[in-house]
Amino acid sequence: MSCPHRSFYGRSTTLVAKELLGKKLVRRIPVTKYESQRLAGLIIETEAYGFNDDAASHAYKGLTPRNKAMFGEVGRAYIYFTYGNHFCVNVSARSGEFKAGAVLIRALEPLEGINVMKRYRKNNDYLSLTSGPGKITQALNITKLLNECDMTNADSDLHIEFGTDPQVIIAKKRIGITKAVDKKWRFVLVDDKYNQKRGV
DNA sequence: TCGATGATTGAG
DNA sequence: TCAATCATCGAA
Fold first, then answer.
1. Separation of CA A189 and C1' C7 in angstroms?
2. What is the DSSP string of A6-20?
3. I need a surface site. Which of A28, A85, A159, A169 has the fewest CB within 10 A?
4. What pTM was computed for the model?
5. Strand C contact set, beta carbon < 7 A
6. Which of the nucleotides lies closest to A133 (Cα–C1')?
7. Distance A52 CA to C2 C1' (A)
8. Contact predicate A11/A88, CB 8 Å
C-alpha cells in the first residue's frame, strides 16, 4: 500500500489534520530478519498544533530539544512523553509561512493485529484499545525510539498509508489544554463505527 | 540544581 | 473528581 507523498504534509496544519482522517497509521514490528508483525488502525480523530499562532502548541515558545521534530522535515513523527506515563504520536506538518507544526493522532479504529494490540495494552476491551493518544502508543508499542521516523515511507516501522476517503468530519475544541482553548482544531470522523460506539 | 507543569489514563 | 508519575523547561 502506498503512502501520502511528502507534499501532503507541506500544507496548513489544520488541513492536514482533517485529511489524515480515513488514512491508516501502520506500525511494523520486526519479529525476525525476514518477518514482521503489522499493526494498523484507521485514523478517526486528530488535533492540529501550530507555531506562533497557537499558544497551546509545544512549539509556541520556539525550538527546544523536545519539539525539534515539529521544526524539521514535514511528514516525520513527533513523539513525546507526558504525565510520567504516556507517549503521544504526531506527524509534523505545516505550510510555508510557519516554522513548526504537527498533527496529534488522538484515536484509531483498530484494523490489523488487534489481538497483539490487546496484549500491549494489557486490556481486552475493544472500545478502550485505541480511543486516546496514550492508548494508541501503548497498543502499537510506539516510544521515543521512533521519534522523527519518516511517515511517508512504507518501509518505516511507523508510517501512514492511504485508507478510505474522509466522509463526514466535524471540528471541535481541543482536549487537555489550558491555552488557546477556543480553537476548533480537533477533527473527528463522524461516520465511523468505532467513533459512534464510543460516543464521539 | 529545583519547582511547576502537563496535547493522559484509569479508578472511585 | 482525582491521584499517579516523571521528562521537560525555564528560572534561580
1. 32
2. GGGGSS-HHHHHHHT
3. A85
4. 0.97
5. A 61-62, 64-67, 80-81, 83-85, 144
6. B8
7. 33
8. no
Residue A165 pLDDT level (bands cut at 50, 70, 90) = confident
Q: How many residues does chain A have?
A: 200
What residues contact A163, with CB distance under 8 A and at least 6 apart? Answer: A22, A23, A24, A42, A43
Rounded Cα–Cα distance for residues A147 and A80 (Å) = 8
Separation CA A181–CA A185 (nearest Å): 10
Question: Is there a contact between A76 and A150 (Cβ–Cβ < 8 Å)?
Answer: yes
Determine the pLDDT at residue A155: 96
In this predicted structure, the answer to whether residue A153 has a pLDDT above a threshold of 80 is yes
- For strand B, give the nucleotides within 7 A of a protein CB: 5-10
C-alpha cell at A101: 507544526
State whether the beta carbon of A121 lies below 7 angstroms from any atom of strand B.
yes
What is the mean pLDDT of the segment spanning A110-139? Answer: 97
Distance A83 CA to B5 C1' (A): 9
Q: C-alpha cell of A2?
A: 502506498
Four-residue CA torsion sign, A158, A68, A22, A125: positive
pLDDT at res. A167 = 80
Q: Is the CB of A105 under 7 A from strand B?
A: no
- Among A48-62, A67-81, A90-104, A161-175, where is mean pLDDT lowest? A161-175
Q: What is the spatial distance, in angstroms and rounded to an integer, between the CA atom of A91 and the C1' atom of C10?
A: 26
